[in-house]
């Protein structure tokens, strides 16, 4: 942090369900050897600061850098170039939010970024759940999750039915949570896979006269009615294909190495993939999920699920064996004109999703972010245009760049030379590989270019790394660790999050420093490190003082020299004084010395 030219902070808060305490996790994104890396700074216990208000959050974050990292006020103020958080009002409030307060603290250049992963989640919730079929699919998955969770008998019979059919099925997962895209996608995959087996089970349960089904029979009849709807089956298949396209975009954002100027290109790729769904029909959506149709006289005769046999999912794809679960079209409803219904709905859904995504991520296509595209050599075209883009970025971040020793005039001379070096030595290299090589070998040759690129690359667009940190903290807070102190949790999360970023030498230095600090603490057992003489006795040990006319002293002279009196040792061991044992030992050593002296005289 002291040597980096610029950094951005990423922060998020969470309240532990087990302890109920508010924690604020603070990470920084810096560029190390041309590679953007995330480091955990601190896990702040907000109980020490009061309520989780914007002002208290700012004080807690300031304390991380000034108190824990011992960063000077100038370094902390002038090196911070962006701040990323989720969309909570306490963070992104227009007038008194955390990001506004950080910007008003002598940082007019600070870029406030609302996490792009949260924006995508909100965009999909706004557009998809407004569609009645998609909302009904979500409700069905939630119903199946709680039905199997609360009824062990239904769950057992479901897996028994799959065992009879020799088909692979999955437990219905929880689909309602903060991560909308992945939860919905995983739930739809399980629902479409289990559809045929669940259909057979519910038909048996509804026709059964057992008393145990009497209370839940209306619910089972409602679920079976949904499963018999062929149009609803086709809609679920289309819903899953749409989530597949967007989940690729979301997964790329979660990887952490994405740059802010790359988001418009990723968004354009996602919207194009969504538009391609309009050219496919409902049969293609079903086939993508292992569901085929048998036609007769131009109409659907059977719906066939091709499922792997039990235990065959662990095999290679070429070695798997499959079993077919067949449902006749006579058992299904709304089979006719299902294709036209799905196609008519798809047009409106795709347009709504793409429009919502573009509006939510519009800020990355405006302002300063397009001028940062010159970092990628694939966008190089005209040197004058590239210099103009760099001029806009340098003007906005004039104070941090000046603090880092940047010079605009020197940049104009360095950039044409830098392009010739790239053309000769690094032609065809991707941006990440290129800048890693340049930072490692040519930073002294092009210092101003590297300083400007380092500032751009340290901007963080997604808060996913903070969410991963909280996930790791949740795994630490087991039922037997609920009493962990705040500083202990802080140390654990620092090691867990930062471990992958440390080099072997840095790990060794950290271990040595921790061991030295540990040994400086007061120990219960004090080790005597004084030197010993040739006889093995300590030179600073206290001398035993006895009266010259005592019985022990007289008896010691009357005995043979060089022999340790065992009776004397036994009698002394029964002494009631606390230092009796040490006195006996010293007496024995005195006798050994007397014996050795007598032998020398003889």
Provide structural commentary:
This protein has 602 residues and is α/β, with parallel strands linked by helices. The protein has helices at residues 54-68, 73-79, 89-92, 98-104, 116-128, 132-150, 152-165, 180-207, 217-227, 230-254, 263-276, 282-287, 338-360, 383-396, 398-403, 408-425, 431-441, 447-457, 464-476, 486-498, 504-519, 551-558, 566-573, 580-601; strands at 7-15, 22-32, 35-45, 80-85, 111-114, 291-296, 299-308, 322-328.
Topology:
Blueprint: E1 7-15, E2 22-32, E3 35-45, H1 54-68, H2 73-79, E4 80-85, H3 89-92, H4 98-104, E5 111-114, H5 116-128, H6 132-150, H7 152-165, H8 180-207, H9 217-227, H10 230-254, H11 263-276, H12 282-287, E6 291-296, E7 299-308, E8 322-328, H13 338-360, H14 383-396, H15 398-403, H16 408-425, H17 431-441, H18 447-457, H19 464-476, H20 486-498, H21 504-519, H22 551-558, H23 566-573, H24 580-601
Helix pairs in contact: 5-13, 6-7, 7-8, 8-9, 8-10, 10-11, 10-13, 11-13, 14-16, 19-20, 23-24
Number of strands: 8
Characterize the main sheet: 5 strands, mixed
- SS class: alpha/beta
Strand coverage percent: 5-15%
**Over all CA atoms, what is the radius of gyration?**
37 Å
> Total helix count?
24
Overall outline:
globular
Low-confidence stretches: 532-585
State mean pLDDT (0 to 100 scale).
82
Helix proportion: 40-55%
Distance linking N and C termini = 75 Å
Q: Which strands sit side by side, in order, in the main sheet?
A: 3-2-1-4-5
């Amino acid at each position: 942090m002291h040597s980096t030219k610029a950094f951005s902070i990423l922060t998020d808060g969470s309240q532990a369900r087990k302890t109920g305490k508010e924690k604020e996790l603070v990470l920084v994104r810096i560029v190390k050897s041309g590679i953007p890396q995330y480091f955990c700074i601190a896990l702040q216990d907000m109980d020490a600061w009061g309520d989780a208000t914007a002002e208290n959050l700012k004080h807690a974050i300031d304390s991380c850098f000034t108190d824990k990292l011992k960063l000077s006020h100038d370094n902390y103020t002038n090196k911070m170039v962006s701040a990323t958080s989720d969309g909570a009002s306490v963070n992104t409030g227009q007038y008194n939010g955390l990001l506004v307060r950080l910007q008003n603290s002598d940082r007019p250049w600070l870029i406030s970024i609302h996490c792009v992963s949260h924006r995508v989640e909100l965009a999909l919730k706004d557009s998809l759940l407004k569609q009645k079929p998609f909302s009904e699919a979500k409700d069905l998955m939630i119903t199946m999750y709680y039905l199997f969770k609360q009824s062990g008998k239904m769950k057992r019979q479901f897996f028994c039915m799959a065992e009879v059919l020799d088909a692979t099925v999955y437990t219905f997962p929880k689909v309602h949570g903060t991560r909308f895209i992945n939860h919905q996608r995983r739930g739809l995959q399980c629902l479409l896979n289990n559809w045929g087996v669940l259909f057979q089970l519910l038909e048996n349960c509804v026709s059964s006269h057992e008393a145990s089904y009497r209370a839940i029979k209306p619910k089972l009849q409602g679920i079976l009615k949904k499963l018999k709807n062929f149009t609803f089956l086709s809609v679920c298949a289309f819903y899953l294909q749409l989530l597949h396209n967007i989940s690729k975009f979301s997964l790329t954002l979660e990887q952490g190495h994405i740059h802010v100027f790359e988001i418009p290109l990723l968004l354009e790729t996602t919207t194009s993939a969504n538009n391609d769904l309009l050219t496919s029909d409902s049969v293609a959506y079903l086939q993508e999920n292992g569901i085929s149709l048998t036609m007769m006289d131009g109409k659907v005769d059977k719906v066939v699920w091709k499922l792997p046999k039990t235990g065959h999912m662990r095999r290679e794809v070429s070695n798997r064996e499959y079993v077919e679960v067949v449902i006749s079209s006579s058992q299904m409803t709304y089979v006719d004109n299902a294709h036209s219904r799905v196609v008519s709905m798809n047009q409106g859904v795709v347009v709504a999703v793409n429009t919502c995504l573009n509006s939510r991520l519009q800020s990355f296509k405006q302002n300063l972010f397009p001028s940062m595209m010159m970092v990628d050599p694939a966008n190089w075209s005209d040197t004058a245009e590239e210099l103009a883009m760099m001029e806009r970025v340098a003007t906005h971040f004039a104070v941090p760049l000046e603090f880092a020793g940047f010079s605009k005039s020197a940049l104009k001379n360095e950039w044409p030379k830098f392009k010739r070096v790239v053309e000769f030595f690094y032609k065809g290299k991707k941006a990440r590989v290129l800048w890693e090589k340049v930072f490692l070998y040519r930073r002294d040759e092009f210092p101003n270019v590297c300083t400007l690129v380092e500032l751009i690359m340290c901007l963080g667009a997604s808060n996913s790394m903070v969410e991963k940190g909280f996930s790791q903290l949740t795994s630490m807070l087991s039922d037997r660790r609920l009493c962990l102190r705040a500083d202990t949790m802080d140390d654990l999360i620092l090691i867990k999050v930062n471990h992958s970023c440390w080099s072997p030498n840095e790990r060794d230095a950290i271990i040595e420093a921790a061991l030295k600090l540990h040994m400086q603490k007061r120990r219960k057992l004090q080790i005597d490190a004084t030197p010993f003489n040739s006889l093995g006795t300590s030179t600073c040990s206290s001398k035993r003082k006895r009266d010259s006319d005592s019985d022990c002293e007289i008896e010691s002279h009357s005995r043979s020299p060089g022999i340790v009196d065992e009776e004397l040792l036994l009698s002394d061991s029964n002494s009631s004084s606390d230092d009796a044992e040490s006195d006996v030992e010293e007496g024995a050593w005195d006798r050994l010395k007397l014996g050795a002296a007598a032998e020398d005289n003889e």
